[in-house]
Amino acid sequence: MRVEFTVNGQLQQADDVWEGESLLYVLRERLGLPGSKNACEQGECGSCTVRLDGVPVCSCLVAAGQVEGREVVTVEGLADHAAQRSRGARACGTPLDEARAWQARGTDSGAGEGTPLSPVQQAFIDAGAVQCGFCTPGLLVAADEMLERNPDPSDADIREALSGNLCRCTGYEKIMDAVRLAAARQSEGV
Amino acid sequence: MEFLRPASWEEALAAKAEHPAAVPIAGGTDVMVEINFDHRRPEYLMDLNRIGDLYAWEVAGDTVRLGASVPYTRIMEELRAELPGLALASHTVASPQIRHRGGVGGNLGTASPAGDAHPALLAAGAEVEVESVRGARRIPIDDFYTGVKRNALEPDELIRAVHVKKAGGPQQYSKVGTRNAMVIAVCAFGIALHPGTRTVRTGIGSAAPTPVRARAAEEFLNAALEEGGFWDNGKIITPSVAKRFADLCAGACNPIDDVRGTAGYRRHAVGVMARRTLTWTWESYRGAGRTTEGAA
How far is CA A45 from CA A74, A165, B83, B182, in A? Predict the structure, then answer.
């Protein structure tokens, strides 16, 4: 079947979608957006977290057909999404080609320079919250959504918001640091 | 596989009548896992996300009519006053991502003994509103769970809503797991005080083939509370009464050994949760209802 939905602000079409396919599969294998990670396929790990109509969900638990006509934001569109939000404007979106070519290039010398990052992405780099990086996209989407809702989160708020995202490397402390950093920068308008 | 996308409740009922084997999907918490792991290949998958009615709730008189797909997030954030037991249970469901999509209808449809909502629904005395093209009916929660992952639905019926009385007294919910988020209950316990009828109801999860009430424990406690005039004098529950209640709750379990815990552990844990939640709710009842008497 064909599924038409908005991905990172732009209307996209996926063809030959099997009816039992997940949104995650459509994003990765049909639209070429591998940022959302495929790990547990049962909603346990949060690596595949995307925004569906604004709400963070596990894309492995959404049937492709359920997103027809709806809006999805993936980690590839996060920088644009955050930029539009801070400008108070409606996102014009990230074209599929750009999203496919998107790479994390922070402003620290090791990661290179160039592509703009969302504040939460930059904070993950600055705080050293990325080790193997597999859980990072899901954590970024979840953390960014929390900061949108709750600009001044307590540690308990952060832990709660990220409780559905597993990380096996970091022990979470650096991730906590990163989200605190992003919240602090956001409140200072940096 | 065919993907059915009814735009209204009536269309959904018609589709279910035509294809009784169609598997309804809303939050996808259970259905998508089965499909992802190739445990299930339904001939028809029926998306319920487009039916707005299922995402609405209304408070009419003393009852909340909760749409089957109202996400757990909304229940825990917006129905805490009306449905405190279910709100607490909702907060223990998996993770924010899952709570944004999943609702009570899915828990009931799957009817897993480990479903987090069941003990709260049993304790509150809910009714499940189901419908088919043949008509609607309400199934008392006590008659809903018929076996392991089996419920009282007919093949052509869909779950539309749950009717739960607004809490007339304190309610509590407790769940045992290895961590706070993302756990399937080792076992769970719900309790609701109903001062209007001077009764206490319970619900036990993950400790029997189906979610169950601890009926003998309820009967014992109701009699003990009545006999001692506890509802009026608001005295502290006697430790021996609490212990007997806990033992009877543990006795209501019929658990198995599995990867999450042994039968013996589950029985023990249910007893502990029963005693604790009884104390919490009763202290809350004493505190709220009778601020002076017996408070010392």
Answer: 16, 5, 29, 9
pLDDT digits (tens, 9 = 90+) for A102-113: 776 655 444 445
Which of B29, B95, B183 is the best mutation test for A, with the most CBs of A within 10 A?
Answer: B95
A63 phi/psi in degrees, rounded to 5:
-70, 140
* pLDDT, tens digit, 9 for 90 and up, residues B85-123: 999 999 999 999 999 999 999 999 999 999 999 999 999
Q: How far is A140 from chain B (nearest CA, A)?
A: 13
CB neighbours of B71 closer than 8 A, spacing ≥ 6? B27, B55, B99, B100, B101, B102, B103
| % of chain B residues with pLDDT over 70 | 97
Q: Answer yes or no: do B35 and A41 touch at CB < 8 A.
A: no
Among residues B280, B278, B256, the alpha carbon closest in space to that of B267 is found at: B256
| Residue that the structure tokens 């009714």 belong to | B127
Q: E-strand spans in B118-157?
A: 127-132, 135-140, 145-147, 150-151
Task: State the pLDDT at residue A96.
Answer: 85
In whole angstroms, how far apart are CA B292 and each of B31, B170, B254, B283, B286? 52, 18, 41, 13, 9
* Domain made up of A3-75: CATH architecture: Roll (3.10)
- Which of B5, B32, B182 shows the shortest C-beta gap to A60? B32
Of the candidate CATH numbers 3.40.50.2300, 1.10.150.170, 3.40.109.10, 1.10.150.120, the domain formed by A95-188 belongs to: 1.10.150.120
